[in-house]
Amino acid sequence: MRTLFITVALGSVLAACAQQPSVNTVSANQTMRAVPVQFGTVESVRGVGIQAHNTRLGAVTGAVIGGAIGSTIGRSTAANVAGAAGGAAAGGALGNAVEGSNVKQGVEITLKLDSGGMIAVVQPGDPRDFRPGDRVRVTGEGEGVRVTR
């Protein structure tokens, strides 16, 4: 049981150390390329929660670790197999819950572009970062759009 506690604690610490998304951070594949730039005015702003993409990595990792730990519980082969199965199920559920509960604060910004169009962009941030009437810059297109003042 102590090993399981240490494993869960270590996993939680590593998850907390992961880099938080920001409109001021770009990934390596977003560098060294031209992106379209538009200008517009903020129409409305609202806070949203951004759920992390569930890769099932937490469930798989939890199942493997839980199975390994569970297999050492019993004194017989049957007990070891039962412990491994139970540990894998519990570890998988715990890993999935930890990964799936990762919700970040975000903001949905509805914009009237100078070109006449209207768009809404969801990005990491705080609703207090923008106010209706703010002039903003919209860079990128598709999944790589970001709004800055």
Total number of helices: 3
What low-confidence regions span 5 or more consecutive residues with pLDDT below 50?
none
Oligomer: single chain
Overall 3D geometry? elongated
What string gives the helices and strands in order? HEHHEEEE
Report on the architecture of this protein.
With 149 residues, the chain is α+β, with helices and mostly antiparallel strands. The protein has two domains: 71 residues, no CATH class; 66 residues, OB fold (Dihydrolipoamide Acetyltransferase, E2P), CATH 2.40.50.590. 36% of the residues lie in helices and 28% in strands. It has a five-stranded antiparallel β-sheet with strand order 3-2-1-4-5, with no helix packed on it. 15% of the residues are buried.
Keywords:
five-stranded antiparallel β-sheet, 149 residues, 36% helix, Glycine zipper 2TM domain-containing protein, elongated, 3 helices, signal, alpha+beta, OB fold (Dihydrolipoamide Acetyltransferase, E2P), 2 domains
Indicate the topology.
Blueprint: H1 2-16, E1 37-51, H2 57-70, H3 77-100, E2 103-113, E3 118-124, E4 135-139, E5 146-148
Antiparallel strand pairs: 1-2, 1-4, 2-3, 4-5
Helix pairs in contact: 2-3
Keywords: Signal
Signal peptide: 1-18
Protein name: Glycine zipper 2TM domain-containing protein
Overview in brief:
This protein has about 150 residues and is an alpha+beta fold. The protein has helices at about 1-15, 55-70, 75-100; strands at about 35-50, 105-115, 120-125, 135-140, 145-149.
